Amino acid sequence: MSKNHTLYQHGTLALLVPGLLDGTITMKELLEHGDTGIGTGEGLDGELIILDGVPYQVDSDGKVNVVSDDFTLPFANSHFAEYRNLTDVTELSQKELDDKILGMTSANTFFSIRMHGTFTNIKTRAVKKSHKPYATLGKTAENQSIFLKESVEGTLLSYYSPAIFDGAAVGGFHHHFMSDAHDFGGHVLGFGGATGKIELQQFDTLEQHLPVYNKDYMNYDFSDWDILSEIHDAEN
Fold it and tell me: Does pLDDT of 1 surpass 60?
């Protein structure tokens, strides 16, 4: 099994919903499973994007930080980059871009998209770090900062999860962004136009890692939650 065909995921989006926001993996451990990825820090501390092995965090002030090996995360994806060229696009909206990519690949497996180019009217967000006792994902996500750029050059890093895995991950696309100047980024809420080169990496294996040494997670009863609705409300 090639490690380049494996998507590693620590935690699930479902565990974030009731507020299980402890950091349960270190950045050092996460980077052992990939040089590319996305995630969030303990207490939903900003938005992470890993490019070429460098873990960037966009915090709630919009500042871009390179985090240390001991930075911890409750949820993250990572993989070893081995992208292949897919297509070039000009001035596509986020929905147009998503539709075009799905028209050229399969919706029934995991894949990652890396797109470098120019993005117009791009809106991103990052959440302010919270502390125990944690609020729910919905409540914590209300305390977010929104960032806007009229035009910026940078990298869109996206993961796609099949609908049948909704809850473990975000069913559909999950987009993060980092500018070339490392002064703007975050979880992508939308953009007006994207122009540049799209690369694709498809996975045939999901390696799902659960925080079994975290007592709060292991003892939690998820049965009272409408997990999927809560995730979609918070992610959009």
Answer: no
